[in-house]
Amino acid sequence: MAALVYYLVLPFIYLISILPFPLLFLLSDVIYFVLYYIIGYRRKVVRQNLRNAFPDKTDKEIDRICRAFFRYLCDLMLETLKMLTISKREILIRCKFDPASKAIFDKLAEENKSLILVMGHVGNWEWSGHPFSLLLQQQLYVLYHPLANKYFDGLMHRIRSRNGTRLLPMKNAYKDMLLHKHELTATAFIADQTPQPNNGYWMTFLNQETPVFKGTEIIARKMNLPVIYACVKRTKRGHYTMYAELLTEDPASLPDGALTELHTRRLEQDILEQPETWLWSHKRWKHKRVG
């Protein structure tokens, strides 16, 4: 059944992918109307997350961010499918590197230093790997959780690896990184996923007690690689700029929890700057702190 659904849907996915951007965004507007006003997909979850994160905002402000988020979510979904057919030239026009940020990666490459890249689900993280792989010297590896449906997992693998990015399953992260330690690499962690409460680092994030994924810090300290925080910020519809900041070149020297605090605080700043571009629809605060 999974295969049947996949092969029935696949032609429509490619049809969407070849649409020019004006038509793609027109379709996104239609999907937004259906998703938000008719289906009401996770609308209560998003509003509650926003209300908890921004207790000082009025109901009108919360509703505005909620609607803007759903508009952006629809754009993000279709922009991701666009990666199946978009040209290298166009992706480099639409997802640019901030020059000062690119210089950080170039300097580390000149020093033959691999690095760890830490990001969150803010901006178009799905597009970020393509300009990275096309423009930078480091081989980009992205850690990911494989989808349960092997057919759609294969599709996402094709989308993400099209321009040279390689994917590593999250569960084998450290082992796989050791296998590639003689290459010049950048290994990307999406660090705002929800860990089990007893495995997370607890801190206040967006005005709430939040468990934060510690894998980035644990592996960074073990391998003592430079850690760079990166964000893909929307400049206008369908256009983004990638920014990066070197958090530390010596993570092993930092006390426990310090690196997790650093990259989570940077993510928080970016969310506050463009709140509609973070993934509010996931149940980020489903766990409560015990003890």
Q: How big is the Rg?
A: 19 Å
Oligomer: single chain
Cα distance spanning the termini: 45 Å
Total helices: the number is: 11
Strand arrangement, major sheet: 1-9-8-2-5-3-4
Alpha-beta classification: alpha/beta
Categorize the overall geometry: globular
Mean pLDDT: 95
Number of strands: 9
Describe the 3D structure.
- With 291 residues, the chain is of the alpha/beta class.
- The chain has one domain (9-277).
- It contains 11 helices and 9 strands.
- The chain has helices at 2-17, 21-39, 43-53, 59-82, 88-94, 99-110, 125-135, 150-161, 173-179, 215-223, 258-273; strands spanning 95-97, 115-119, 139-144, 166-169, 185-190, 201-205, 208-212, 227-236, 239-248.
- The strands form 2 sheets. It has a 7-stranded mixed β-sheet, sandwiched between helices.
- Helix 1 crosses helix 4, helix 2 (21-39) crosses helix 4 (59-82) and helix 3 (43-53) crosses helix 4 (59-82).
Keywords:
291 residues; alpha/beta; 7-stranded mixed sheet; globular
Task: Describe the secondary-structure layout.
Blueprint: H1 2-17, H2 21-39, H3 43-53, H4 59-82, H5 88-94, E1 95-97, H6 99-110, E2 115-119, H7 125-135, E3 139-144, H8 150-161, E4 166-169, H9 173-179, E5 185-190, E6 201-205, E7 208-212, H10 215-223, E8 227-236, E9 239-248, H11 258-273
Parallel strand pairs: 1-9, 2-5, 2-8, 3-4, 3-5
Antiparallel strand pairs: 6-7, 8-9
Helix pairs in contact: 1-4, 2-4, 3-4
